[in-house]
Amino acid sequence: MPAANRNALFWGTVLILLGLAFLLNNFNVIPGQFIAWWPLLVMGTGLWLVAQTLPRRRGGGLVGGILLLALGGYWLARNFGWAGDGLFLPVVLIALGTGLLLRTLVREP
Fold this sequence. Notes:
The protein is mostly helical and about 110 residues long. The chain has helices spanning about 5-25, 30-35, 40-55, 60-80, 90-105. It folds into 2 domains: about 1-35; about 35-109. Helix 3 runs antiparallel to helix 4 (about 60-80) and helix 4 packs antiparallel against helix 5. The N and C termini lie far apart (about 35 Å).
C-alpha cells in the first residue's frame, strides 16, 4: 500500500474515532472530564509534525505543527478554565509568527 494511502487510512480512522468520542460525550456515555482532554490529540499531532519536519530540514511542517501545538494548548487551557476567548487571536498570531521564523531558520542552505 502506498504511503499516501496509509496516511489517509490512518487520519480517516483518527477523525472517525474522534467524532465518535464527541458523539458519545453528547449522549453522556463518556464522562465530561475525560473528553476535556481531547486537545492533547491536537497537540500530539502538532508535535508529530514538528518531529517529522526537523530531521529532514524542511520547514513546511513547522508552521502547521507549531500552530497545532499552540491551538491544542489553548483549547486545553480553555477546557479547564485557565484561558478565555480573548486569548485565541494572540495565540494564533504568535504561533504563526513562530512557525514562520522557525521555518526560515531550519531550511537547508
